[in-house]
Amino acid sequence: MLDRSHRSEALLTARLSLRRPVPDDIDAIFAIHSDPTTCLHNPSDALSKREETVELFQRWDDHWRRFGYGYWVVRRRGSDRTLGFCGTKVMDLNGMSVLNLFYRFEASSWGQGVASEAATAVVEWVTERVPDLPVIARVRPANTASQRVAVRAGLVRAEHLDTAGEDGPDWIFAKNLLA
């Protein structure tokens, strides 16, 4: 059972501020998810209409309401500019409940350690508050940058869990797998 008593809507790192998305973030969600560069390895995630973005935001918000955590808006501390999104959602992987780690950032923030810093903070936060569920990241074999982010966030390759994803093979990286 998930512990919903740890409802936090803000998380700070040395350089970043992470907070729960609000309706005012829909334009930023659309901007990042409609950029073909950011969805190169996951083209099925690409958005082409604002209405799709409203639906995506609603799914994110529903997860927050149900579990007390989810995907976060990531910004530099002291800035109002959204760099991207990072967080976890409950999902099923091969019959096992897991927390899927997600991160997507605007291309201009790539190569600066932003994704790794945000993912590390999210993994630390969620493993402390939801210790009963393993954290996994589903990464395309060709997406070496995303693989590095997963490893820097404390996940390790779990080849025995690799699966077919919507856009091709999913390599699984995991933390706190139950034996």
UniProtKB/TrEMBL annotation:
One of its GO terms (molecular function) is acyltransferase activity, transferring groups other than amino-acyl groups. The keyword Ribonucleoprotein does not apply. It comes from the Bacteria. Residues 16-178 form the N-acetyltransferase domain. PROSITE patterns: GNAT (PS51186). Pfam families: Acetyltransf_3 (PF13302). Signal peptide: none annotated. Keywords: Transferase. This is RimJ/RimL family protein N-acetyltransferase.
